[in-house]
Design goal:
This protein has 269 residues and is an alpha/beta fold. Helix content is 30%, strand content 25%. The protein has helices spanning 3-14, 84-87, 94-102, 159-172, 192-201, 211-219, 244-267, and strands spanning 24-27, 40-46, 64-70, 73-79, 107-116, 126-134, 176-183, 205-207, 223-233. A five-stranded mixed beta barrel has the order 5-8-7-6-9, surrounded by four helices. A hairpin with a 2-residue loop joins strand 3 (64-70) and strand 4.
């Protein structure tokens, strides 16, 4: 996807009143779009009406871009994402994240639904991501040219932004764990053997998103923070036997705490 596609999408949004700069951009995961409804002076446009934007094909992803005020800050909210497993294209979120940067955003907050390998962080828990392991064999920068594609990933999850997340959690009385996220391509859930492998490699969480967006965000120069909502114990952990319906139900139950945490985080930027 060329820079021209990002420019066309940006111009289309500017003509609809999406004028930067923004204090943050937020991407919501499965069942976590509640935050979009908390915006003041909000405007929204379906992804389908934005040139170059993907059309999410997974239930629980609304497929709208919102602009408005949250915690007194100007934010963009991407209500849902497209996943690499929907098309085999790991760079499917390149245009949306490029647009966020083009509109003057510097901080990207990602959220997702994840399986937990940590018994102390069971369903309903919130976890700040400190790092990731890419087990998918995919990378959204494959096909890019020039030296910019060699993106350093040390500190990909911004330490200062992560500390702000913890400060926000303490202010809200929310328990916020921290852990390493392993990206499996999906869409099938992981096997118990794969979970045992991921644990031995140092993973605390598993999921099917987020990592390509972190790589793209660093490519665009965005500072990244990320939160997983634990929707289930991973396969073979306790009675973990994940299903998509379970993911949606558990995400919806935890969405209120996530929304309060995001409110407090954004207000501190």
């Amino acid at each position: 996807m060329s820079d021209g596609s990002i420019a066309i999408a940006t111009e289309s949004l500017q003509s609809r009143g999406f004028a930067g700069p923004y204090d943050a951009a937020i991407v919501t995961g499965t069942g976590l779009g509640l935050i979009a409804g908390r915006l003041e002076r909000g405007v929204a446009v379906p992804y389908a009406d934005i040139p170059g934007f993907p059309s999410p094909g997974v239930t629980g992803h609304g497929g709208r871009l919102h602009s408005g005020l949250l915690g007194g800050r100007r934010v963009l909210v991407f209500e849902g994402r497209a996943h690499a497993y929907e098309s085999g294209n790991a760079s499917v979120m390149k245009v949306p994240l490029g647009v966020a940067r083009a509109l003057g955003t510097t901080v990207l907050l990602l959220s997702n639904a994840a399986g937990s390998l940590m018994p102390q962080a069971g369903p309903g828990s919130l976890v700040a991501l400190s790092d990731h392991i890419n087990l998918s064999g995919l990378n959204p920068l494959i096909g890019e040219t020039g030296d910019a594609r060699f993106v350093p990933m040390v500190g990909a999850y911004d330490a200062a932004a992560r500390e702000t997340l913890h400060e926000a959690a303490r202010s809200c009385g929310i328990s916020l764990h921290e852990g390493v996220y392993a990206w499996f391509s999906g869409p099938s859930f992981e096997t118990p053997a794969e979970i045992r492998m991921a644990g031995r490699l140092g993973a605390d969480l598993v999921g099917m998103s987020t990592v390509p967006e972190v790589i793209l965000a660093r490519f665009f120069g965005l500072r990244v923070a990320a939160i997983s909502v634990v929707t289930n114990l991973a396969a073979g952990i306790g009675d973990g036997d994940p299903h998509h319906d379970e993911t949606k139900r558990a995400a919806a139950a935890a969405a209120s705490d996530l929304a309060r945490l995001i409110d407090a985080f954004v207000a501190r930027l």
